[in-house]
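Sharing in case it's useful to others searching the archive later.

Someone asked me privately for the predicted structure of Type 4a pilus biogenesis protein PilO, so I'm posting the question and my answer publicly. Question first, with the sequence:
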Amino acid sequence: MTLDDLRNLDPKDAGNWPIQVQLGSLIVVLVLTIAAGYFYVWSAQVEELDAGQATEVQLKTEFIDKKKRAINLAEYKQQLLEIQQSFGALLKQLPNRSEMETLLTEINQAGVGRGLLFELFKPGLEIKTAEFVEAPISIKVTGSYHDLAAFVSDIAQLSRIVILSDIKLSTSKDQLLTMEATIKTYRALDEAELQAIRQAEAEARKKKK
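And my answer, the predicted structure tokens:
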């Protein structure tokens, strides 16, 4: 059938069209119907299905994660209890405000006892947290390598928590070493400081309401 024959077909008399033309027209109509259905109806449903499948995967992952946590809940509680006990034990090692002067004296005597020369021993500004106060001390001492090492060892063996950080070593005269460092000590909060923290937390909760 030629193109002219197709043009001469009467749309009102489709029942008498050649069988090939009828089948072709039917296929075209089906294709257009399916395409229209996809773009206007099915595409939204497909997107909704994909979103549902993604949500299902996420929920399964969350369920497995929560199930693992539930299985290990007793172990987690035990670990938390041990951490709290360890932290409580550490807090008990902290000196109070009145004991800080004694601790500073012990640190200074540890250096002097090793024959070190203190060029700087300067307490810095305290840093307060909800549990304790960090008290940094800037030091600069000069002595032999052996004496400096012994001093660091003595600091580590003090009954209180003392941390040596920001250490810088340089050579001085007479084959001696000069060490600059920050000694961080910690003390417990006194009652006035605890009361101030409680009041600040209470005021913060009121503002949130």
